[in-house]
Amino acid sequence: PAHQSVISGIEFQASQVIERLEEAVEKAECEGGGSSAGQAWKNSHAFLPLPSKPNNEILSLLEDMIVNEDSGSHNNSPDEEGVVPSIAPLPQLDPAARLAVVTHSVAAYASGLERSHLQRLCTRITSDTTRWLSHLFRFFDCAAFIHDDMLEGIVRLTRMMLHYKYPKYLEDGFDALTSHPPVIYSSVASPLGVVQHICRQLGLPMYCVRPVPCNTLFGSQQKIDVAALERLIDEDKSNNRIPLIVLADAGTTIAGHVDNIVRLQELCKQHDIWLHLRGHSLAALAMVSVQNVPSRIADSFTLPLGIWLGIPALPVVTLYRESTLPLVAGLTAEHFTRRLSSLSLWAALQALGRDGVQTKVREAFESSEQIWKKISKYPCLRLLSQQPGGEAETFTVAELVSKPVSTAVLLEVVACTVVFQFVPESVEGETLRVPSYYDKLNSWLGQILQRDAPQVPIEICELETNGVVLRYCPLEMGGEKIPDANDIGMFIVCLEQQLALGSPLG
């Protein structure tokens, strides 16, 4: 039928553009660029040219800028003659990722539909997607906010809590807050930029943010000190401040530690504070095939599914427990119901199926488990990430997939990342920061592993409490193949050679 051929036509054209880009990269790699490569970066018009350009010419310009990286200088100086720009690596697209990219074109086309039809279509797509995600992530009776910016969900949830705690906020704005300022609690181990962004977006002063210390004597130095948080809450309430939201981690930014979610949940319920969870360990909720009785461990989650599934075109999802406030806070604003923002996610989830999602996530956690176990055998390497299986190594990933465990236990026994560093033997078993000389050695070791064992991608990072560390995170691999046992074996051989030779580590 004619109507169906419209979607097929869009799919064909969008696929052609993707294939054209992939072929252009292959050609550039074979030919080593050329004199015209990257020329579009230098030819910029101050004003829109008068004559129209044919579509093919516009796409050729775009292709040149996507395939070739900008050299940084747009002057045709003699020094730059003969300099060939670097060829940009294109994202890896499996069939599900390719479909997600194509559906962005379909969503743009559908935005021109008659208003009531578009609204019904958006409602159907969003409700399907929300229902599927609520079952995948064991968060029933929830609503979903679909957004492009990673932090937009937290901003809107904080605004929702302002409306809840300050009934006159809608009428009085900031005046409603002045005598009883709100408080946002965030761990000192979390990036400061997150709470700064929330305050900027909502017009809140930075004194509304309460940095919560991490454990010092017992437990991980990356986890929130719950007793300290309780003291801060009591202190704030006695000073006429209103606790609003606690931002907790199920996988801290670098080392992947999970806060004590059960105790945080009890504390937040006791004081009527919203508990928000973010972090890569939340992906483990979708890994379990046994559908347990749901265990709501927080009031909301941030789910960056595009990052976890290696699909570049997917939006971020914030799942939150339903209430009447989201409408006021703009979480379900009318203009969102007229945008097919969740279409790429709706299509990709179906293309993968539950089996596909579970397999991708399981393989990621299994690779962390395998690498952690291999690295733990070397006394000169200190592991700083959460131990897979928990401290008692109670569960393997294979067991977690089929055994019913509570959500809180699941998050405590998965490792979303492996973080380690070379340390002098004198500090083995301690958690002190290594001498600065060892920062250079770890950086050097990381560079050698990146060069000689790229099948296990390693990132060189810095932890404030420990210095330079090496990090493997399979949930951030952007669609590349998760390392299998053979890849991990080759990586460990390379690592072992460096440790044995003392080559950088002498």
UniProtKB/TrEMBL annotation:
GO biological process: carboxylic acid metabolic process
SUPFAM superfamilies (UniProt xref): PLP-dependent transferases
Name of this chain's protein: PDXDC1/PDXD2 second domain-containing protein
Pfam families documented for this protein: PDXDC1-like_cen, Pyridoxal_deC
Gene3D superfamilies cross-referenced by the UniProt entry: Type I PLP-dependent aspartate aminotransferase-like (Major domain)
Keyword entries, A-Z: Decarboxylase, Lyase, Pyridoxal phosphate
Gene Ontology molecular functions: carboxy-lyase activity; pyridoxal phosphate binding
Domain of life (superkingdom): Eukaryota
Cofactor(s), names only, from the UniProt record: pyridoxal 5'-phosphate
Entry's family note: Belongs to the group II decarboxylase family.
InterPro entries for this protein: GrpII_AminoAcid_Decarb (IPR050477), PDXDC1-like_2nd (IPR055103), PyrdxlP-dep_de-COase (IPR002129), PyrdxlP-dep_Trfase (IPR015424), PyrdxlP-dep_Trfase_major (IPR015421)
Keyword Iron: no
